[in-house]
Every structure is written in C-alpha cells, then in structure tokens.
Batch of 3 targets.
Target 1
Amino acid sequence: MNELSHTVSAEVAVAPQVAFTYLADGLRQGEWTLGSWDRERVGDDLFRGRSLYDDRIVYVRIVPDAERLIIDYEVGPYPDQLTRLICARVIPGDKLNGKPDSCVVTLLAWRSAADDDYSWRRTCDLHKAEIHLIKGRLETDERSSEPAA
C-alpha cells in the first residue's frame, strides 16, 4: 500500500452550512472521529481526545475556512507537534447533484512519513466508517430539529 492520500465522500441531506458548522465544531467532532474520542477544549481551536483503537491522547487544531467550506485538521501527539494531515470539504448539492438542500461531504487524509502500512490502512478504514457516522449524525440532527407535522 503506497498511496499518498485517501478520500471518502457521502451525499448528505442537509444544507451545506449545516454540515460545515458541524464539521468545524471541535467538541462535536468527538461524536464521529474514532481516532479522537471524548473531546475536550484545551485552547483556542485546540482540542484533545483519546484514540478508540490504541487509547493514545491526540491533539487536534481546527482550521475552518467558512467561505470555501473547508476545514483543515492539524493532528499530533502534543500541541506543539501538529501536522495538517486531514481536511473536510463540503460541496453544495446544487453544484453537483441539483439538490439545493443537500451537500457532499468529503474527508481527505494524507499519509505521513510516520505511517507504516498497517497504520495507514487503519486510517483509511476508519475514514470509511467516519463518513457514515457524519452522514447519520447530520441527517438525524436535522430531522430532530424539524417542527412536528
């Protein structure tokens, strides 16, 4: 396995801004990111979580770009050792599939020099699961906020 990057995408039945706001929320990110669970804020846009697969502490800095609907995630084992290896992008549905109140969410990960084949394969597999968690959380939250008929 020699890939340098990996992407996963899902069509989500929510407005693009709803998806962006959710993905840029460092505490709510702990609901779907399996590599950094039990999130807590430890500074401006800096969060700490625990990996579900090896129980290590992971730090994440959220770098949102609201105009472009892109969120960069700087990750690492210590606050002073963060690398921008993951990003999320939201594309408005009317630009791709013609559905105005939907969007496509994409997660992109780059392989670092420290990733052996197993850790890289695990990252790719986790992102495949995480995109389903994102879709499920967003669509469930959106339905639960709609007024009763």
Target 2
Amino acid sequence: MSSDSSHRVLALAGVFQAARLVQQLAREGHGDSAAYRASIDSILVLDPKEPIDVYGDVAGLALGLEILRDKLDGRHNGPLELELARYVIGIIHLQGRLRRHPSMLDALRRGIEAAQAQRSFFTQDDDGEGVHPSLVARLAEVYAQTLSTLTPRIMVNGEPSFLATPAIAERIRAALLAGVRAAVLWRQLGGSRWQLVFGRRKLTRQAAALRETILPRCQV
C-alpha cells in the first residue's frame, strides 16, 4: 500500500473518529451513525489495495478529520478533550502491544473473517448507529477475547446506565476494535507517535484540506 502522508492522515483520522465514537456512546448512549458505520465497516476490510479502500471514501472519515483539524493544535484542552486524547493514546498503545503478540493477530484475523462470512445474514435491521446488532456483537466478542486481555486495558468513562447496557457496551468494544484497526493501518503507512508530538501543525493542515474535499465551500 502507498505510504503517502495524506493516507497516514486518513488512518489517524480513523483512530480519532473511533475514540470520539467511544466517548459519544459512553456519555450519550449513541454515536454519529455515518461515522460509526464507516468505522465498523473498516474492520472487515483486511486486504485493501489502497488505504482509502478501508473506509470506502474520504467522506466516511468526516468526523475524524474534523477532530484532527480542530483539536490537534492543543488549544482545546477541556476535560472531554483530555479524555478523548487518553482514548487515542490508549488505542495507539494497544496497537503497539498487539504487534508483540503474533498469535493474537492471527486470532483477530480469524474472528474478523468469521464476521465477514456472516455479514450477508446481517442485512436487515440495525442498531442505533446503522449497523446490525449481531455484527456489532460478533466484533465486540472478538475484541473481548483478544485485545481486551492485554494490559493495561482501556478504561472508558461515561454514564453508568449506558455503560451497564449490554448493547451499548458492545458498540463501544466494536468501536475500540475499529480504532485499533485504524492504528494498525496508520503504523503500516509509516505513522509514529513522534509525528503526533512534532508534526501537529502539518497534520492539522492536511486534515483541514482533506475535510474541505468532503464539504467544499459554496461557489457564489
């Protein structure tokens, strides 16, 4: 796959998008439906020809690109933004730990391939985020049996009533799996934590430019 820097930005936007979805689900009980659908679909794309194939098109990452554009400059550091940053860091760290467990990588792939095979049966009905609940449950189970066993685990904060609801908890686990999938892609394309530290302005500019391709300015 190409290692073009714009592709790295898209993969990183996938990480941020998944983190925001986790936060929305935990605190509000629902998430951005278009973003959730794109993130969940990305898990099932195991062998893309090009990085963008993972998300279908740039529009699937609108939420993540918006966050990169607006939040990565460090000017937004309220409690919720710090929480979001913690989720992003946790997802990236989890991807790093996963790389040291080849057998878990194999188990993840087998679990995702099983979900792929079952997807044709999940064409009717969906949960509140536009994804069939059985598919979400299957991916959540894959996460619970693999990534969730690595320590330290990602601790999710939110409304206790939402976190205690099985369907919402499954959506959160599936979103975390989507985040790790994006982090793996980011790493494959040459992404590193140093870029987050020293390349924030460039990432912000690139994210803004990509976001503009989704919602171009009105011509008058």
Target 3
Amino acid sequence: MRRLRAFEQVSLDGFFTDAGGDMSWAHKQDPEWNEFAASNAKGGGALLFGRVTYQMMERYWPTPAARESNAAVAEGMNKMPKVVFSRTLDMAAWSNTTLMKSDPAAAVRKMKSEPGPDMVILGSGTIVSQLAQAGLIDEYQIVVNPIVLGKGRTLFETVDKKIGLKRIRTRPFSNGNVVLWYEPVA
C-alpha cells in the first residue's frame, strides 16, 4: 500500500500562513537547509497539492530563477508526478500534473490502494486537514520555524477530533528550524 506523508512548515505559534496568507517567512536559504530540501526532492514519489499551493509552486519551480537558486530541488519538483485537487481550476499546465476535481479523501484512499510511488503533501493546509480528519496521512514531517506570527491559519483548523501522534525522529538545523517526524498512533 502506498504511504502518504505531509511535509509542512509552521511557525512556533502553530500557523502555516500568516494572517495575509503569506508563507515567505518559511523559505530560508542556507547550505544545510538547501541540502536537506534537495535530498527530499530526490526521494521520488508523487506530490499532492491544493489549488493555492499548486499555483504558488507552479509560478516558481519551472522558472530560471528556481533553477539558479536551487537546481536540485527545481529538477525534482518539475519531474515528479503531481496531483492538484481543485474544483475551480480548468487545467493544470505544470509538467506531470493531474487535475482531480473529486473529493480529496476519496481520491487519496483510492490512490493509496493502487500500485505506485509513495505520496507527499506540500503545504495545502485545507487538504492536510481533510486527509488528517480521514486518517489517511501515514507520516507528518513538521518543520517548526523560529518565528511567532501572532495570527494566521493553523494547519489542522478543520480537524474536529483528536489525532494521537508519536514522534519518531527530530532534526535541528543551524538556521533555527527543527523538523519533527510523527506517525499516527492507533
């Protein structure tokens, strides 16, 4: 069975976007972090996005600026298969992208039962909330950034039940980020 991982960046006070929807505070550039990001991008698999995150990624990763800034991540992002969940998009033009207009939980449940690579959700807080609520996320990789935003959107804002997690790994970075790996507890 295919596994689903969520790779998410949050502020110290638990927001994944600020009050205006901005996530630029989470994009630090330093050699150690870039190496980690490149390693993740080389890991293969399929990327899952909601519309907002997809459009943000689509505007950046296929560009010369992305290749110049971080060639390894750009190459991985552009080559990997991608699925965007949206009821409003008419087409998805970024390379290797499939547009899904169906219910994300039902679609991911079906995708997990089919052969194929593991999947990872990047950003896409609304989709993360829906899939967490449905018990479909096998692993959470939460990057805690050393910043307090005060206001914003929480990653699990629509989850209305407790989801027990156990920490399986931790990695601190010199830029202040800490990555926490969790798995759901049955």
